[in-house]
Specification:
Strand order of the largest sheet: 1-2
Radius of gyration: 21 Å
Shape: globular
Strand content: under 5%
Number of domains: 2
CATH architecture of the largest domain: Up-down Bundle
CATH class of the largest domain: Mainly Alpha
CATH topology of the largest domain: AhpD-like
Number of strands: 2
Helix content: 55-70%
């Protein structure tokens, strides 16, 4: 099996950019292992290969990846050609028209906090029609609607969406794998899109000597969305949020989905001070298997409900964690830790993940000593262009936001801006990795639980 990210980006083994990717060998290897764990596991169980490819082809299409959609539809054709045609027709009715004068891009969504209501963005909701539902089946159709939610409405996700999946026939293990698969594809497709832009940018990349970290802990520094069109196949409530169709399943599934009426919810983006609670049950710490404990990588994570929830699919969790660690903590060369955390924060701020933004803005502050500047981005949002006043930080934020839009808007112009700010192509790959990874992490955090105000708490 070729490296899928390279394949989608148009890279071949040994290309200059591929050699730069080799500076993060664990990230590269485990991104591929994530594909294998989520799309082609040895034992697919109730979540069949056919349904995995259905979700993947649909997700890639929503993300505007022609190469990704065709790759996954090819896999799907081998399993079920009728389903492949159904996905193509469904995408024809739902994808963003990038040729329009003002193309509409996600992420869409509403905040529960009145203090953030000015940032609410309406967008299309999907209800799979009868024709596609007859071909795909009710369980798969529910998975398709969940994929549309995570790709385009990540901050609109709520416990009622997990209840709908349970009512449709998914179980808790299957829901975790489904969320991982969709979220992983948001990473895979975005990283490949960023690499493709880097490949085709003027003065195409040659292998460069990786730079020293750009920012140290003492503060020394170097060097959008719109209202959605309704489109065929969309189905929304009278308020445009789809709430009516989404909320009725909670009573049906009972205690299998937990809601928190008295939770102390954050009202604004802040640095630190947030925890996270799950909507479906994690694996109890005492019940963790050896494989699940191994997948946690760090023994202390067994205390954390988020990681114990992801442990329902241990192979996916292990590969994801090792990808994370190499992208963010391998600092033998390349981009500084502060800028990597800044990329994570910018993606999280755009997607509306208050939890991830809190953790990684705090880490960006710790690494850079520039807490006020980080808070400025949290307070003002990520509208382009960034005005933080540091050319490197502004370029990193703008690039991370462009990559995180749905479909991504990262192109050669963003590459040029990053290079103009003094970043090497090795540094740019670190920016792409950090931003793309948090389009994975945000969608897991937003779709499986919610943040709460606490005295302290840090989870990636």
């Amino acid at each position: 099996m070729p490296d899928i990210i390279n394949l989608l980006a148009g890279l071949t083994e040994g290309d200059p950019l591929d050699r730069l990717r080799d500076h993060r060998p664990q990230a590269k290897e485990n991104a591929q292992l994530s594909f294998e764990a989520l799309l082609e596991p040895e034992e697919p169980g109730d979540f069949s290969y056919r349904d995995r490819y259905v979700i993947a082809a649909f997700t890639a299409g929503l993300l505007g990846s022609t190469a990704g959609e065709e790759f996954y539809r090819d896999l799907l054709r081998d399993e079920d050609e009728a389903a492949a045609w159904a996905i193509a027709e469904l995408l024809d009715d739902t994808v963003v028209d990038l040729d329009a004068t003002n193309p509409v891009r996600g992420p869409y969504g509403n905040y529960g906090s009145a203090r953030l209501v000015a940032e609410n963005v309406n967008g299309p909701w999907l209800s799979v029609g009868a024709k596609a539902r007859d071909t795909l089946g009710p369980v798969t159709s529910a998975g398709i609607e969940f994929a549309h939610l995570l790709v385009l409405h990540p901050r609109d996700a709520g416990p009622e969406d997990l209840a709908r999946l349970l009512a449709a026939g998914w179980d808790e293990d299957g829901i975790v794998t489904l969320a991982q698969l969709i979220s992983f594809l948001n990473f895979q497709i975005r990283l490949s899109a960023g690499l493709a832009a880097l490949l085709h940018a003027p003065a195409a990349a040659e292998e460069q000597i990786p730079s020293r970290p750009l920012t140290s802990a003492d503060g020394r520094a170097g060097g959008s969305s719109g209202a959605g069109s309704s489109g065929a196949g969309s189905g929304s409530g009278a308020d445009g949020s789809g709430t009516g169709a989404r909320s009725s399943a909670l009573a049906e599934v009972g205690a299998r989905v937990k809601t928190y009426p008295d939770l102390a919810r954050p009202e604004v983006f802040q640095q630190s001070g947030l925890g996270w609670v799950p909507w479906i049950a994690p694996v109890a710490e005492a019940d963790l298997t050896e494989a699940q404990r191994d997948a946690l990588i760090e023994a202390g994570r067994a205390k954390n409900p988020y990681f114990r929830l992801l442990a329902r699919d241990p192979a996916a969790l292990r590969a994801r964690t090792l990808t994370d660690f190499d992208i963010f903590f391998n600092v033998s060369d390349g981009l500084g830790r502060a800028e990597r955390e800044l990329a994570a924060t910018a993606a999280s701020r755009l997607n509306g993940c208050l939890f991830c933004a809190s953790i990684h803005s705090d880490r960006a502050s710790e690494e850079s000593g520039r807490r006020d500047l980080v808070q400025q981005m949290l307070d003002t949002g990520t509208d382009e262009p960034s005005h933080l006043g540091d050319p490197v930080w502004d370029a990193v934020v703008d690039a991370s936001v462009a990559l995180s839009l749905t479909p991504p808007a990262f192109g050669p112009d963003r590459v040029a801006a990053l290079r103009d700010a003094g970043l090497t192509d090795a540094d740019i790959i670190d920016v792409l990795g950090g931003a793309a990874f948090f389009n994975w992490a945000n969608r897991l955090m937003l779709s499986l639980g919610e943040p709460e105000l606490i005295a302290s708490g840090k989870t990636r």
